[in-house]
Amino acid sequence: MSLSLNVNVDRMTILVVGGGRIATRRVLKLLNAQSTLIHVVSPSVTSTLNQLIRKNKLKWSKKVFQASDIQGAQFIIAATDNPKLHEKIKALIPSNVLFNDVIHHDASNIHFAKEVRRGRLSIQITTNGASPKLTQKIAKEIEEIYDHQYEGYVEFLYQCRKLIKQKPISMDEKIQLLDMLLEEKFMNADAQQEMLCRLRH
User: How far does the signal peptide extend, from start to end residue (predicted)?
Assistant: First the structure.
């Protein structure tokens, strides 16, 4: 049984073995999470990865994987179409290194969930390898329910929470205010601005 956690990867040394479509998706997710130390090892890469390499967003070693490539890596992603290579990589890595295998879900000790993001709001969906198609279906349904309007709304909630925490009122009053902010009317931008003005004075 796995436990869903968020991992801070911005200063983590990450090795991606593979340069195809799935490797590209993994790299884009990592870059979106502010990863800056990504090393791709592959004889070839997609045009998207090539553009990122030219922009110095990641390092590329144009070659086949070698055991020495894992040295210093804290997070390793096996993203090729070669199951035997993935088994070799897993056998080489220390147990304290994060490992994601795009072919063998059970071989991984960390997994990439499908994410629906609206600013500070992040909703992650996974079937733990049972059905990626169902994961995609549920994600689309969630995207329709929580549209882009929620990006501004969640930012509003964040700003309000900071202001409420500073107010010299009782804990019960703070909780009442936080509960009130979940009312439908505060999806409206004008109502949000009015409440922020009230809290600042």
Answer: none
**Is the whole model's pTM more than 0.70, yes or no?**
yes
pLDDT in tens, 92-120: 999 899 999 999 988 999 988 899 999 99
Over residues 2-53, the pLDDT tens digits come to: 777 788 898 899 999 999 999 999 999 999 888 889 999 999 999 999 999 9
Interatomic CA distance for residues 60 and 16, integer angstroms: 9
DSSP tag of 73: -
Are 91 and 39 members of one domain?
yes
Range of the domain at 172: 148-200
Q: Tally the C-alpha atoms within 13 A of residue 5's C-alpha that lie toward its C-beta.
A: 9
Nearby residues of 111 by Cβ (< 8 Å), 6 or more positions away = 2, 100, 105, 126, 128, 129
Q: What is the pLDDT of residue 15?
A: 98
Q: Are residues 87 and 37 in the same domain?
A: yes
User: Are 25 and 46 within 8 A, CB to CB?
Assistant: no
Closest CA to 180 of 168, 198, 166: 198
CA-based nearest residue to 195, from 165, 156, 169, 148: 156
Question: What 3-state DSSP class applies to 191?
Answer: helix
User: What mean pLDDT, rounded, does the chain reach?
Assistant: 95
Q: Count of domains in the chain?
A: 2
